[in-house]
From TrEMBL:
InterPro entries: RNaseH-like_sf, YqgF, YqgF/RNaseH-like_dom, YqgF/RNaseH-like_dom_sf. One of its GO terms (molecular function) is hydrolase activity. It comes from marine metagenome. This is YqgF/RNase H-like domain-containing protein. Keywords: Cytoplasm, Hydrolase, Nuclease, Ribosome biogenesis. GO terms for biological process: rRNA 5'-end processing.
Length: 159
C-alpha cells in the first residue's frame, strides 16, 4: 500500500510518501499553502497526480488533523477537514485524518540532529512533519493489523 500524507500549514504544505510495503515514511516536498481552500485543494491534487501517475501509484492520502494537546480540535481542524474532503472528491482516493499533535516538534528535533543551519531546517520542516504524521499512521495501522485508509472522515470528538 503506497500512501502520501499532508501537513497542512497556512504558508506551506508538507508532503511525505511511504514505500510500497507501507512500512517507512519519507519526506517528499513542500508546496505553498496559502490561498482559498479551493486553491489549496487544486494545488495538492496537482501534486498528488504526479504520484498517482507514477510507476508505484498511490493508494490513499493521510491528512494531519490539528488537535490541541488536551484532544480538543484546533481552529484549523475545520480547514483540514475541508481540504481532506476536497482531495478525496477530486482524486477519488481514500483519505484518512491523523492526529498531528506535536509532529512539528518531533520533526524539528529530528532535523536538528542532522542539520545545524536553522534556515535549511525551516525549508525541510513541513515535509518532515508530514513524514512523522504518516509514520504514526502506518505504525498505528500496523498495530491494528491492517494499513487500509478510510473513505470516511471521522467527526470531531467533543472531548
Amino acid at each position: 500500500v503506497r500512501l502520501a500524507s499532508l501537513d497542512l500549514g497556512r504558508k506551506r504544505i508538507g508532503l511525505a510518501v511511504c514505500d510500497n510495503s507501507g512500512a517507512l515514511a519519507t519526506p517528499w516536498k513542500s508546496i505553498p499553502g496559502n490561498g482559498s481552500t479551493e486553491a489549496v485543494v487544486a494545488r495538492v491534487v496537482g501534486v498528488l497526480r504526479e504520484l498517482v501517475e507514477s510507476e508505484d501509484g498511490l493508494d490513499g492520502v493521510v491528512v494531519g488533523l490539528p488537535t490541541h494537546l488536551d484532544g480538543r480540535p484546533h481552529p484549523d481542524a475545520a480547514r483540514a477537514r475541508e481540504i481532506a474532503a476536497g482531495v478525496g472528491t477530486r482524486t477519488e482516493l481514500p483519505v484518512s485524518l491523523q492526529d498531528e499533535r506535536l509532529t512539528s516538534v518531533e520533526a524539528e528535533q529530528r532535523l536538528a540532529i542532522r542539520e545545524r543551519d536553522w534556515r535549511k531546517r525551516k525549508l525541510k520542516l513541513d515535509a518532515a512533519a508530514a513524514a512523522v504524521i504518516l509514520q504514526e499512521y502506518l505504525d498505528a495501522a500496523g498495530s491494528r493489523g491492517h494499513r487500509k485508509v478510510s473513505n470516511e472522515l471521522p467527526a470531531d470528538s467533543p472531548n
